[in-house]
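Sample 1 of the test manifest.
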Amino acid sequence: MNTAGRIAGERAGVAVRESLAGRRNRSVAAGVFLGYLLLSTVVGLVALAVLLATILHDGLPYVDAMLFTNSPSADPERAGARPAIIASILVAVVLIATALPIAVGTAVYLEEFAPKGNRLIDLIELNIQNLAAVPSIIFGILGLAFLVRGIDLGPVLLAGALILGLQMLPTVIIASREALRAVPDSVRQGGMALGATRWQVVWREVLPAAIPGIATGSILGMSRAIGETAPLLMVGAATFVSFNPGLLTQYTVLPILIFQWIKLPQEMFQGLAAAAIIVLLVILVAMNGFAIWMRNRYERKW
Amino acid sequence: MDPTSETPPAAPSSPVATGGGLATLSVEDRPAADALPLDQREVVFDCEGVGVRYDGKRALRDVDLRIHANAVTALIGPSGCGKSTFIRCLNRMNDLIPGASVDGAVAYHGENLYHPQVDPIEVRKRIGMVFQKPNPFPKSIYDNVAFGPRVLGMKDQLDDRVEQALRRAVLWDEVKDRLKEGALGLSGGQQQRLCIARALAVEPDVILMDEPCSALDPISTSAIEDLMLSLTNEYTVVIVTHNMQQAARVADMTAFFSVDQGETGARCGVLVEVDRTDKIFTNPAHERTEAYVTGRFG
């Protein structure tokens, strides 16, 4: 390269360097923004960590066999959470047996079969969205008026579980519809072009392809219902149940037992409450973990 | 580029009696039915005045077209000319589009496809379709091919049926050792051949292909074109293509669609001309066809 060329090249290099340097101001703004984002994340994480640390510190000494085998008692030395744990599991079973099929059925109908642009269907869809925003205590009042007194079910586990199921419906319906919508239309067209009926295409192709998303949404909805307290207070979940609950007996669930224990004056009950919170958290984390595992395991790229 | 230069020359062994010979394959490669001139072969589809409207807006009008058995008929034309819309009339896939309505008459072996008593499900069993983008189901290769036979209750000797379909789609050798693996792991060209195998597994009479190679590389395209030609032994093939060379290579008959702009400015697809492929590409009757095939338009 000749000298003139080299000088021209160096000049060009300087020009490039200067134009690159001009970006420093912007990088300061970017740095500030990044700092803000990190701070926001840290605030949330620290709050969660403090909560968890407190609960673990207070509760871990009380997590023992007695917690799982004994009934609640006025004597904190002998008190356990067995009936509440059993009741929470029973509630989950009732949710799977009732709310889940109804929610998935609704989602499949609305997404795959309902006529598009129909006023009634639009109204139903709008109301499902609204239902998701109704405060849980309102569901409790509905349960009290309709299930406990209206059809005279009484303050039994089934009534509580059904009302939790009703509350869970919109969440699962919306999640299931998202999952169904994520299945590309080309799959439906491909099936129909082979002479399959719409029902066959939905049952054999669309629904299986949407199962991971539906399962994820269902588990998240269920874990919310398992941790719910307010509506169950309305439908009369008793706080002192010393027997193993059945579907048609009185009952108490973990969140209500925790609520009850925390109100008691003896310090040991505070520790027991923290221990019950740990049990509840472990159940919820396990359910959510399973949902995440399902999603990653069966996630599809189209 | 002059697309006609890509047209293979008429096979020299082609007897003059067939009306100049088919531009695509020599007679030895064709089935016995081929000895008949195209226009004397059985008419599979006889379309009269076929048109389609979407939400009242006309997208296609007045298509008069005959499609003959055991031949490849190509539908070509510029974007928006209604060729895809038309091919979807032939197996009533337009029924699935909300707001779409078909007028005119489509006779399939003499029967009106749009008669109120005709079940579109029955129509689609006999008239299979392959789409622009390969759309295998998200399950195993085997289950993809077995889907049609299973839903139609053709469950006896399912393994044989699947193997036969994959062999006819020239995919068997590539997938026979991994039938239980996911179909989405195949390459694009393999996926498209799988979709063809899936359509063949229900033993249709006609295969419709809507731009089957537009998402594929040249090697896969060539494989699918060879496949189309071999399929005419048993099936009637209708293909929509953007690629004029492709039409010239595979089609016995070619229909040229174009767009008419109405007085109100509304654009509507029309059939300009249909004839033997060599005629369309070398000596078309209409100026619009000539302008399109020589690359001056569209």
